[in-house]
Amino acid sequence: MKGEAEVANGNGSRQPRGFHPIDKARDWWADAPQWQRYGTYLVVLVLALILPAPWIGSFMSPDSDWTNVLIFPIGTYILLAIGLNIVVGHAGMLDLGFVAFFAIGAYTLATMSTKYGWAFWPTLVLGIFLAAMSGVILGAPTLRLRGDYLAIVTLGFGEIVRITANNTDAIGGAPGITNIPHPEPMFGVEFFLDPAPYYYLILFAIVLVIVFSVRLHKSRVGRAWAAIREDEDAAELMGVPTFKFKLLAFAIGAMIGGFAGTIYASKAVYIAPPNFPFILSATILAAVVLGGAGNLPGVILGAFIVAWLPERFRFLAEYRILIFGFVLVLMMALRPEGLLPSRQRKAELREGTGGMGAMGAEVAGPDSEASAEVTK
Amino acid sequence: MSALFEFDNVTMRFGGVTALREVSLTINTGEIFALIGPNGAGKTTVFNVVTGVYQPSEGEVRFDGNRVDGMKRFKVTKSGIARTFQNIRLFHNMSALENVMVGADAHHKTGAIGAVLGLPWHRKEEKRGREAARALLDFVGISKVEHEAAKNLSYGDQRRLEIARALATDPKLLMLDEPAAGMNPAEKNDLQVLIRKIRDDGRTVLLIEHDMGLVMHISDRLAVLDFGQLIAEGLPHEVQNNQKVIEAYLGVAEDAS
User: Fold this and answer.
1) pLDDT of A333-352, one tens digit each?
2) Rounded CA separation B248/B257 (Å)
3) Does A54 map to a domain?
4) What is the mean pLDDT of residues B183-188?
5) What are residue B206's DSSP bridge partners?
6) Are A233 and B53 an interchain contact pair (Cβ–Cβ within 8 Å)?
7) Which of B53, B86, B129 sits opposite A370 (nearest CB)?
8) Residue A35 is assigned to a structural domain of this protein
9) Mean pLDDT, to the nearest integer, of A8-23?
10) Residue A192, C-beta contacts closer than 8 angstroms, at least 6 positions apart
11) Do the Cβ atoms of A224 and B145 come within 8 Å?
């Protein structure tokens, strides 16, 4: 980012400078001094804080309570999309069962608080921890697989978690868990029927997760993920412990999923297995891809749109899903790399390499027949 | 001179094909050692066995006193062996600097927690890695394209970048797979200077190369592979006049058989 200022000085173009307004905004951002950047962060945060205002809601969501819509689906989807973006956008692994971690977080909170009377915060920590553990347990044997095969295994995992919840009476079985207590009051704020405190809780979670995600992206960890996405064999031969970093991506994604799940359950009062269908995994993946995998603002925008559109068109009843589908097709046709793709990902997708299995990670190199031996 | 690297009776089979047959090689510390041979002789297979891409069917590979066959690939790199690739395999969409930093990260320790919390040692490692990467780009002579995406670099610069990335892992043994392929004479000269500089920095170089002029100029010793077998080894002028080598390259004369 810092170096892009030097692009203009004539030693060739690092990436072609675009004429599209989004590219222009990005160039401005790349060259913006510190105070302008922090100013922008501040403006965005203030906007987020006043977002639940009724006058905004009357346009954004005329048919249902806007603050509730902001919590679920919008806020929850954004949180999930940021988590899935680490797996799909950064490390380039296709995960079709991300909802499993969301479910694990939600079930941890529901079970611990209803059966054992645990308070919200310790349960939150436990939920995140268990989601991370399940990510590691799923990842350890399966991350040797690449692309399509990994997608199939994760798809199966998502279903296994849901069906297990459905058949285990100790965690509610098919009827689910009811009467999940709300979080205890914080800073004198009651968590009860008023949705506003939940909105600020989820906003806080989103900001926290964004900071984590950005810091990881800029570090050794982010570089290792990018290297794995581009050429896993070469990365391994340059001293990147690829398996460890893939597992890490999986675990961190799972943690964020679990985080979203615990918050969701504490607001929902009632959860049941049908709350965690495969279609939710697919929707979050759609949000990541539509928004522009790998680029955080894009992913957040994608999640917002995917969550908000069906709510906005609620007055169309059953037809709203048709409109939703139509808009998704339109968006993919007009901006196939996503609404706000990261430049790197955009280039990778153009040349058909890098990332996301079936979309091109399986380009065979001279060493590819040995790739199965990597983690022996 | 002490042996840094030993190939002890290594055989490598792929199904019915024997790519290497009982190859034994010793490379001494501080040497520039070249491996030559016709296409398909098994030169790149040697590299792949050394770096742990393949596990030899028979025989042992020792480096710096330890066995490295069967070691995980990233551990081989950490133990001090780095390589480049015959068909360039950079991280194309990452900048030149980032490519080299990935190499420098091989010896870094901080992980996700250090990065997320911005811990001091993480910052220090990042800073050190960045500085080391800049110095290496300067060393191979491409510091002006530091922020350019690797794929936008010229062919010669990409080869140099691969060398810089490999050097960033701080190897004792640097293995170059056809570094001069596709280079013009001027670039080849620069490359020769660069390889000498690398050796003078105290590293050992193992080189696969087809350009005989370059090989004969630069290497201290060389070995010739043909159909997976070692047919000659020695000083450049000895190998040059070896009958078997001439036959391998030019074929056997009609009346000789």
Assistant:
1) 888 888 888 877 777 777 65
2) 14
3) no
4) 91
5) B33, B175
6) yes
7) B53
8) no
9) 50
10) A182
11) no
Amino acid occupying residue B169: T
pLDDT of residue A336: 81
- Chain B residue whose CA is closest to A230: B91
Closest residue in B to A218 (Cα) is B115
The pTM for the full model equals: 0.88
Q: d(Cα A228, Cα B238) in Å, to the nearest integer?
A: 44
Q: Please provide the average confidence, as pLDDT, over all residues in chain B.
A: 92
In the stretch 155-184 of chain B, residues with CB closer than 8 A to chain A read 165-166, 169
Residue of B38 and A255 predicted with greater confidence: A255
Interface contact A337, partner B, CB < 8 A = no
Chain A contact for B72 (CB, 8 A cutoff): yes
Q: Which domain holds residue A148?
A: 64-363
Quickly list DSSP for B13-63: EETTEEEEEEEEEEEETT-EEEEE-STTSSHHHHHHHHTTSS--SEEEEEE
Residues of B in contact with A13 (CB under 8 A): 152
- Interchain contact A235–B (C-beta under 8 A): yes
As beta bridge partners, residue B173 has B81, B204
pLDDT score at B248: 83
Identify whether A2 is part of a domain: no
Cβ separation A215–B107 shorter than 8 A = no
CA–CA gap between residue B39 and residue B16 (Å, rounded): 19
How far apart, in whole angstroms, are the C-alpha atoms of residue A328 and residue B187?
51
Q: Let me know: does A263 contact A76? Beta carbons within 8 Å.
A: yes
Inter-chain contacts counted by CB atoms under 8 A, chains A and B: 140
Within 8 A of A4 by CB-CB distance, chain B residues are 147
Chain A residue numbers with beta carbons less than 8 Å from the beta carbon of B148 are 11-12, 14
B106 has a chain A CB within 8 A of its CB:
yes
A11 pLDDT tier (thresholds 50, 70, 90): very low
- Is residue A369 included in any domain, yes or no? no
Q: In total, how many domains does chain A have?
A: 1
The secondary structure of residue A369, as a DSSP letter, is G
Cβ–Cβ of A242/B74 closer than 8 Å? Answer: yes
Min Cα–Cα distance to chain B from A370, Å: 6
Measure the CA–CA gap between B4 and B179, rounded to whole angstroms. Answer: 22
Question: How far apart (Å, rounded) are the C-alpha atoms in residues A324 and A309?
Answer: 6
pLDDT in tens, A113-162: 999 999 999 999 999 999 999 999 999 999 988 778 999 999 999 999 99
Q: Is A210 exposed, middle or buried (0-12, 13-18, 19+ CB in 10 A)?
A: middle
Under an 8 A CB cutoff, do B102 and A235 touch? Answer: yes
Q: Assess whether pLDDT exceeds 50 at residue A6.
A: no
Phi, psi angles (nearest 5°) of residue B87: -100, 110
Query: With an 8 Å Cβ cutoff, is A13 touching chain B?
Result: yes
ipTM of the prediction greater than 0.85, yes or no? yes
pLDDT digits (tens, 9 = 90+) for A300-326: 999 999 999 888 888 887 888 888 888
Do the Cβ atoms of A367 and B53 come within 8 Å?
yes
